Amino acid sequence: MRGIDTHIKEVLDDTAQRIEESPELNCAVIAYVGPIHPQIIDTFISKIEQVRHRIDQQEGHPNPRRLAIMLTTGGGVVEVIEKMVQVTRRHFDEVFFIVPMQAMSAGTIWCMSGDKIFMDYTSSLGPIDPQVQNPEGQFVPALGYIDKVNEIIDKPQGTISDAEAMMINRLDLATLRRYEQARDLSITLLKEWLVQYKFKDWTHHRTHNQGKPVTHDEKIERASQIAQDLSNNNIWHSHGRMISIDTLRDKLHLEIEDYTDHTNLREHLKSYAGLLVEYINNTNQAFIVHSTTAGASS
């Protein structure tokens, strides 16, 4: 088993190095695969610091303040995302996100903290529906509970079923408030990060009012609309809805870097992500954070 693990590590390191050296990125790369949970924070911080140290020891690095995060996740806890963004931005000025498979829910919020988002035609983001811990200790999507409660409250008097009435009577208001706070935090962070990072180079309108300067208020307005749309279950109808690059561009008007036709990069990313997913599935690990021990060449 040790020999197999060593071989897998060598393949992962080699593939990660090829991705780092790609002309589309040309920077350090970290891969994160798995749910986003408080238990991952220490491992993530350690990996970020290791990569920072590796770059600092390498003379002539082409982009020493740039990091690309290859992300595959079904989502998780938004407070964890906030901490990881703070840590990452302490060490790197420019952060790219690469989504070879899917980055759902809190993963989508994390991507919105990047300066660029790379996807191909098979990649997916998702509605921003943060995971919160219910009284039984299980992590559940917050928006589903909030929407159901609002639906029952809005029903005309006399039309609420016995089951719905029982649900409302058993509902802990503190728990509901925690769900609402998780939703509000998700929207707040997404708006803040879009304006601060994703929109930082958006200086002139490209379609409507083409050529005119973009104001700070217009950036806030666009970010607010994106946040509201991504958190609107009436649009997506499902916590697990997979939102494609075309939908993100055409309906949400988000600028996404499409690497579909970049054959070498796409093949390396597919191999890298697939091997990491297979590895954690076979070893029953909850998550993995990986980066190569080598560096990008100049």
TrEMBL record:
It holds the Pfam family SDH_protease. It comes from the Bacteria. It comes from Halomonas elongata (strain ATCC 33173 / DSM 2581 / NBRC 15536 / NCIMB 2198 / 1H9). GO terms for cellular component: membrane. InterPro entries: ClpP/crotonase-like_dom_sf (IPR029045), Pept_S49_ser-pept_pro (IPR002825). This is Peptidase S49 family protein.
